[in-house]
Every structure is written in C-alpha cells, then in structure tokens.
Amino acid sequence: MTALLLIEDVPSMQLVYENVLRNVGHTVHSAGTAEEGTRLFNTKRPGVVLVDLMLPDRDGLELIREFITADPATRVIVITANATINRAVEAMRAGAFEFLIKPFDETRLTDTVANAVAEHAIASGASPAPAPRPELPDALATGLIGTSPVMRDVMEKIASVSRSMATVFISGESGTGKELCARAVHDCSSRARGPFVPLNCGAIPADLLESEVFGHLKGSFTGALADKPGAAAAADGGTLFLDEICEMDLGLQTKLLRFLQTSSIQPVGATQPRKVSVRILCATNRDPAEEVRAGRFREDLYYRLHVVPIHLPPLRCRGTDVVEIARNALAEFAAEEGKGFQRIAPEVEELFASLPWPGNVRQLLNVLRNVVVLHDGPEVTLAMLPMELHHEVEARAEAAHGPAPAQAAQPRPALPLDGLIGKTMAEIERTVIEATIAQHGGSVPKAARTLDLSPSTIYRKRESWQRNGPHES
Question: What does DSSP say about strands 264-265 and 274-275: parallel, antiparallel, or unpaired?
C-alpha cells in the first residue's frame, strides 16, 4: 500500500483524517507544520501527500511545488476552505492532483486518495523518473488534427492533464472541436474504460435541465412516466462533459456546485442522495470570466470548474493545419461515399489557407462533405466548391480593397463584332467570359455577377477549355 503524508495544522482534523484513511488500510505519516512535513517527505518518500494550504510556518503552495519538483510522480491533494479556493486553483496549475474543499465527507476523502494512489502507481511503475505522458488516442489523431505550435500546445496539455482528476474547462469558438478535446482527455485518462456522457446545456430547456443532469423518479412531476437516471448517474465511473456550461440556469448552478463538493446526486423526487464517482469536463464558446462579471455565472462555481483551462484556437490562427484537416477529411468522406477523390488542387488549398473560416473546423468539414457528395473525380477543384464560399471570397476582397472606382461602374464599351463574326457560339462565349474577367482585374466572382452566372460555372468552363479547347463548355 502506498504511504501517505498528511500535513494538517489543526490537531482535531488531523486525527479525523488519519482515522478515516487508516481504517481503509493506508499507512499515514502526519505533520502539523511545513517543516515537519518536509522532513517526513524526505525520509518516508510518500507516494501521495495531503496538504492544507494554510500552514502556520510556511505557504502550502511553495511546499507543493517543492514536493513535485523533488519527485514528479508524487500525487498531491490540496485541502482548502472556500475562502482559499483561488489558491487551490493555483495549486492545481502547479501540478497538484486534486483539491478537497472543507467540509468534505469520508467517501469523498477515501475516493480521492484511492484515485491518487492508483495514479502514483502508474506514474512510478517504470522508474522513479517522471511518468511518460500517454500516447494520444486515435480519436484525438483524427479529430484534433494539426501540427501548428498552438495545437501542439493543446495536445501537450491534454496529455498531461488526462492523468489527473482535475476539472478541465475547455473554451473556444463554435466549431473548434471542444467535444473532441473532451473525449481525448477522457480517452487518455484512467477512466477511459468508463462511460463518456456529453450533455449540451444550451440545447435543453431550463425547466428540464435538472432532470437531465441529476435524473428524476417516476411521478415526481407531470410527464415523469418512468424513473430516469440522469447524465451524472450515467457517467458513474467515467466522465461527464457539460457543453455550453454558461447556458446553465443560476439555480441549477448551485446544485451543480453542491454535486462537485459532495460527489452526491439527488434525483428530482428522491428523498435521499447517493454517491457517484464522476470526473467533470465542461466547455463554452463564451468568455466565462465575463459571464461571472455580468452575474450570469456563479463565481464560486467558476473557480471550482476553471481548474485547468484549455483554449482551442480558431482555425484561422492555425496556419497550414487547415490543409492537413482538409486532406484527412477528403480521404474519409470519399471512402464513406464511394467516390474517387485522391487530392485537393493546389489553388484550392491556397484558397483554404487564406479564408477566415468563421465556422472553424465544422465549416471546413461541411464544405468538403458538400464537394464529395455532389461531385466526383481524382481532384477537388475550385469549380466544385459551394457558391457561398465564392461569395465569401468576393466579400473579403471588397472589404480589403474597397468598392470599385466610380468609372468601373459605368457602361463598358461593347466588344467589337468584327472579332466575333465567324466564330462558333462556344468560342464567342469563351471570348466574352475571359474579356469580362479581364475587365474585373481577374476576379471570377465579380465577372460572374456581371454575367449573371455562378462563379462555379465559370470555373468549370475554364477548366473544360483548358482540357478540350474552346469548342467544349
């Protein structure tokens, strides 16, 4: 059994914690000061340390940093009161495994210590050196693709935080892959064999959300025709992912905070709570700190959840990741739809890399899905892209360069008929289209608007002319 070190300066609390932990079989070494705790740490080399942040002779946060630096495999559990929860969050960011908010019950204490002991065994199994970070799962490789520096940072953070039981707060614009990030954290963790239960707080009416999270008993309200376990119970032994957490009603936020502190749920209509073992991950596309300032999100819940933040960058800030994602998506969608696509044309990849992608990865995947469903061929070309993408390119060009000069809007001189007489209609069509494009400085979208055509029609015709000459359109 892994030895435990308890550093608690209140003798009565020290005695209570010792008895609880020894009753379940742990060997406990206790200290009432930072000095005595340091001496015991150096001599006993405990695998798990429980430390109160408010010590009489030294800052508990400094002590935590020293222990983790001395032995990175050590799992530190912080004991704190509500008044010091901000510093507990600092401790988590410094590498602590978990924190317990006073008052907590026996089950919460023993469960947290058991998890820490298990994690220490994994971390120290190969050697006393720091435990290697886990391999990222296939779900991450296929879902959060990218080699840009910002995404490398995200993936490193996912790998390091997964071994902890700490709450992870994922932020980022809509479509950046927050649920994929949460799944990756779960899949890398010791709870990977347990359930992963996602719940979108913004998609459920406020009056039903409590039942969706904590469950209800049959007959507890109108329409409750059967018992419902709820997402928290369904995630017992695994991970509960609360997406769009800032959409949660303030009243339910209070109950969620109580759940986080006690690990107990009480379904609607139930008279007694029951224990569950659940890790919480949450996400939002809002600024959570701003939601707190606006009074829409409880400050105490924010600090309880915002322990390890992970921010997913927008696609426009990820450099050439967009091309890598597009290539992977094309291969996947082509296989699903039975199409022959093998590559993306260089000019399309160049366009993808230049677009702002307001819908982020979700928008890019929708574009590729549209192309694969409606077209076929070895290569994705500009002509195959949805019309709205061409419109976006045109709008960006106008925003960047301003409206065309006034004289450009005046009637242009007609093409000389002498140059058209004797040509086929296909040749005339090509001459007119190419001349109109030239008059618009090479802009296909602007020429398309003048000719009352879609940009994709012009792209398709130009590709046909390059392959077959002007007689084909």
Answer: antiparallel
Name which CATH class applies to 411-473: mainly alpha
Question: Treating both helix axes as pointing N-terminal to C-terminal, what angle do 455-468 and 444-451 enclose, rounded to 10 degrees?
Answer: 110
**Any idea what DSSP says for residue 59?**
B
Q: Alpha-carbon distance 34 to 55, whole Å? A: 7
The model's pTM: 0.62
Secondary structure class of 132 (helix, strand, coil)? coil
Structural contact between residues 198 and 224, judged by C-beta atoms closer than 8 angstroms: no
- The CA-CA-CA angle for residues 169, 279, 130, to 5°, reads 80
Q: 318-385 has which fold? A: Helicase, Ruva Protein; domain 3 (1.10.8)
CA distance linking residue 183 with residue 168, whole number of Å: 12
CA-to-CA dists, residue 257 to 68, 111, 138, 242, 263, angstroms: 29, 18, 33, 13, 10
b vs e for 50-73, b when ≥16 Cβ sit within 10 Å of the residue's Cβ? bbbbebeeeebbebbbebbeebeb
Task: List pLDDT tens digits, range 456-465.
Answer: 788 878 877 7
More confident residue, 159 or 5: 5
Considering only CA atoms, which of 150, 444, 116 is closest in space to residue 312?
150
Q: With the C-alpha atoms ordered 441, 446, 448, 454, is the resulting torsion angle positive or negative?
A: positive
How many angstroms separate the CA atoms of 41 and 98, rounded?
Answer: 19
The domain 3-124 is classified under which CATH number: 3.80.30.20, 3.40.50.2300, 3.90.1150.10, 3.90.79.10? 3.40.50.2300
pLDDT tens by residue, 309-353: 999 999 999 988 999 999 999 999 999 999 999 999 999 999 999
Residues in contact with 280: Cβ distance below 8 Å, sequence separation at least 6, in sequence order: 167, 239, 240, 242, 260, 305
